[in-house]
Specification:
With 244 residues, this protein is an alpha/beta fold. The protein has one domain (41-243): Rossmann fold, CATH 3.40.50. It has nine helices and eight strands. The chain has helices at 31-37, 54-70, 85-95, 99-104, 114-132, 153-174, 186-189, 194-201, 238-243, and strands at residues 45-50, 74-78, 106-110, 136-140, 177-183, 204-211, 214-219, 224-228. Strands 3-2-4-5-1-6-7-8 form an eight-stranded mixed β-sheet, sandwiched between helices. β6 (204-211) and β7 form a beta hairpin. The longest helix has 22 residues, at 153-174. The two termini are 28 Å apart.
Length: 244
């Protein structure tokens, strides 16, 4: 996993694995959430739209589990400077996985402008998925780069539409389990038509909202919701202990 400072838009390449792995859903390893949501399914595009920082814990867990579950690489396009290699390593230790093997299979590209992000997704991502044999794609904090007040909203909307439609097409063609994340629910509401665009393009939506002493997790497409009392991310729950 190459997390050193590089020219914006450069994709690091992990080892290509010949085995395609089984087409199992990528789960969070949190039994309550997995029973409710079911995980990221290969060939589908999922959005996690969150007002809670729990989003970042889930994204890192899903990334690690994407490698271990599918037996294939993960390509992570980071639009919000959210990739934390130490957190990925901690998750590997917690789950008893080989840290070096997992991190070598995570290919990270960071974008620093909206145009770099569009270039990575529209021009580079399909080739990278094919070259690495990736089974999972993550695009974190997708809307962040398009909130620049100096960009005309009509242009921002056109670019983000191009990104989500390209992600949908790559997901269909390559069969990847693809995850888009957004941190800050208002980001999709403050911009005209943005929520409708993204919600209308993805296959599954997980919405996380702060509630009193817990978070409300809802699946808008299924009209289902639950309250979840999160424990510290470094603490094993009784359910997890029993599972193992």
């Amino acid at each position: 996993m190459d997390l050193s400072t590089r020219e914006a838009g450069a994709l690091s390449v992990g080892p290509h694995r010949e085995g395609m792995g089984h087409q199992e859903a990528v789960r969070t390893s949190i039994p309550t959430l997995d029973a409710f949501f079911g995980g990221l399914r290969p060939g589908t595009l999922t959005l996690i739209d969150s007002s809670d920082r729990m989003l970042f814990d889930l994204t890192h867990i899903l990334c690690v589990n994407g490698v271990s579950t599918l037996g294939r690489d993960v390509v992570w396009v980071d639009g919000g400077n959210s990739v934390n290699p130490y957190e990925l390593g901690r998750i590997c230790r917690r789950f008893g996985l080989d840290r070096s093997e997992i991190l070598d299979s995570i290919n990270v590209a960071r974008a620093f402008t909206a145009y770099q992000l569009v270039s990575l997704i529209d021009e580079r991502l399909e080739d990278e998925v094919r070259r690495t044999g990736a089974g999972m794609v993550i695009v974190s904090c997708l809307p962040d780069m398009f909130q620049d007040q100096e960009m005309r909203w009509s242009e921002s909307y056109r670019l983000i539409q191009r990104c989500v439609e390209r992600l949908r097409d790559i997901t269909r063609e390559s069969g990847t389990a693809t995850l888009i994340t957004n941190y800050g629910l208002m980001k999709l509401l403050q911009r005209k038509r943005l929520k409708d665009l993204i919600y209308g393009t993805v296959d599954d939506i997980v919405r996380i909202e702060n509630a009193s002493r817990c978070v409300r997790i809802s699946l808008p497409n299924r009209q289902e919701s639950m309250l979840y009392h999160a424990v510290p991310h470094n603490q094993t729950t009784l359910e997890e202990f029993t599972e193992r």
